[in-house]
Amino acid sequence: QSNFSIPQIFVTSPSLSLSKPRKMKALYSTTITVATSVNFQLLHLDNFLSPLPHQLYPFPRSASPSLQNLKFSSCPVGIRIRPIIRASSSSSMASSTTETKPFSVLFVCLGNICRSPAAEGVFRDLVKKRGLDSKFHIDSAGTINYHEGNPADPRMRAAASRRGIEITSTSRPIRSSDFRDFDLILAMDKSNRADILAALERWKQRENLPPDADKKVKLMCSYCKKHNETEVPDPYYGGQQGFEKVLDLLEDACESLLDSVLAETESGRT
Questions:
Q1: Active site residues
Q2: Model pTM greater than 0.85?
Q3: Domain end among 46, 71, 90
Q4: Which of 3, 30, 152, 235 is deepest in the core (most CB within 10 A)?
């Protein structure tokens, strides 16, 4: 248990301002408020038998965050203190406010039913295997809305499943907010990239988007290390081998992508 100190406590009633505690004699139940560096904690005070000064009884310098078994060396006879709200540890509050924002990646192809959902599935699988789920926000989209609301192509899902990769995404078109919400937008081919940048220019005419949003857009194959291809080909009109080729490229690129993001994140902390 972490220790924390509470500077003072004072007596109030519902009709009194918390900022103006007063002396009062109580023959009934009232409320005692504990001022802490974290927030206000409420205790219930029963059976007062004597007047109470507004500068009351300091907590011990070390106190349990649960405020159980409170003891006051100068507490008057007849006062019984019962906590009704638990205190929060200041250390846990601090850690929650300093958590790093997840790195967000959006994969984009034409219809968001073959290549980009496969890229999303491959990258999710890699991130999960390394235990980094909470560090990433991953999604995919298309440059057109023709397949909006549909699951990924069954041929793509079957090919990925044979490699132990699950594809669960639903097709959606890219939207202007993606340029605010994502740190990196990866296009499967040069035509996709051109369409993404053209859409960005249109949206910039009527929305306030990051001035450097275009720098977020990159080609997926720019991360490949084992393959020389510059684009991920669309397998939609081809045979099964086309889907396998897509997965080969995506596994190569996603492995390098993850290593690159982790390296940049680590260097940013030092």
A1: 109, 115, 234
A2: no
A3: 90
A4: 152
